[in-house]
Design brief:
About 15% of the residues lie in helices and about 35% in strands. By secondary structure, the chain is α+β, with helices and mostly antiparallel strands. The longest helix has 16 residues. It is globular, with a radius of gyration of 18 Å. The chain starts with 6 loop residues before the first helix and ends in a 15-residue tail after the last strand. The structure holds copper (II) ion.
Length: about 200
Amino acid sequence: MSTVVFPRTAAVAAALTLAAAAAPAGACGLHEQPAQSVAAGPSAQTLVAAQLAHAHQLYRLGDLVIEGPFSRASAGQGRAGAAYMAITNTGDADDRLIAAVTEVSTVVELHTHSMDAQGVMRMREVEGGIPIPAGETVTLQPGGLHVMLMGLETRLTEGETYPLTLVFERAGRIEVLVSIGGVAAGAPPAAGHDHR
Ligand SMILES: [Cu+2]
């Protein structure tokens, strides 16, 4: 008997088809591992919900693809927060994230972390914006590059989302929805927490 040889592959293909059918037009072309990213989901219902949420977290703007915008929930009474995401430049020309605006924060800056002379990691504003070189993916993540929210108007609450407008030098501007994860989230909530 040599009938169904690759059941797992078939399942992945089915999941891909499902995700593609559920996604907004043109938004789902870059998923690499949709089935694996939600593999921990306990039920079929959760799986579908996660795929839908994940599909909605992928944005296209010209040659740019913005994936998985997320923030950590506010801890304590601090009025600072940050937004993280992966930005891929699929084009032939370099671009640059030059600004971001959101109603949830009065001041928004583009930051990175670097070691100071005493060996302490400190945040600082990136002069001139964050370069997004042609053909590369730039990942904004905790401990690295981030969109800094310096004056939060409201606490960031886990499970909620807020709109964030990103302004690029070449591609222009786009509003994305930022998903708020836990206070120590290292990835967008819909993509699962793997705590690596
Ligand atoms: Cu910062």
